[in-house]
Amino acid sequence: MNVYLAELIGTGLLLLLGSGVVANMLLPKTKGNGGGIMEISTAWALAVFVGVVVAGPYSGAHLNPAVTIGLALTGQFEWAMAPGYILAQVLGAMIGVGIAWLVYKDHYDATDDVGLKAAPFGTSPAIRNLPLNFFSELMGTFVLILVILYNDGVEIGDSNKTPIGMGSLGAIPVAFLVWVIGLGLGGTTGYAINPARDFGPRLMHSILPIKGKGSSDWGYAWVPVLGPIVGAALAAGLYLVAGA
């Protein structure tokens, strides 16, 4: 499989399942309505597992521009390939969230709450304080990238050989990592920790014919894009200074 196609499919699966669980937990009349952060964090972690299993052997399963940038900054990935990876990730996120919207379309139509309609697409802060919201996204991504860089069991970023040494089980550490970040640091902003995960779906929210959807809140959109990028850069810097 082409590495860019692998990133697109892997990120698409991530957002299909991740956006899907938020819709299932929050939208009215679903079988899962009423769930909370435990269910959502667990499902996002498992969605990462699914994406890594599918894309890992072909592209290294970055599925996240912050991962791509962090690996490039530490010399573990070619900068020349980064734009293609990031574009594939954004397009994959858009496709995945679009399919999830179609699956739950009747449930979107059944609510007038614009906040609930927006939640499966982009993240939003529990308390709107942009500097602290930015710091939350920065720290969540910092932890994500730093642990990935030090995780020898999942050699993410090597597209010349199978990057998951333990087969599918090699994706489990990354899934656990995303799980604990969601539970420990996700209560402030919804832990995008992935620019493609937020930008692509937010763009789809603005494009799709969602009945009574309200604002896509582009005034906040820079936080889950720049926060993860800065967090990835700081994690890469610490990794280079401290040594592998």
TrEMBL record:
Where exactly are the transmembrane stretches of this chain?
A: 6-27, 39-59, 79-104, 130-150, 170-193, 220-242
Recorded GO CC terms: plasma membrane
Q: Which Pfam families match?
A: MIP
- Gene3D superfamilies of this UniProt entry? Glycerol uptake facilitator protein
Question: Mind listing the GO molecular function terms for this protein?
Answer: glycerol channel activity
Q: How does it sit in the membrane?
A: Multi-pass membrane protein
The record's family statement is: Belongs to the MIP/aquaporin (TC 1.A.8) family.
The protein in question is named Glycerol uptake facilitator protein
Organism of this sequence: Algoriphagus yeomjeoni
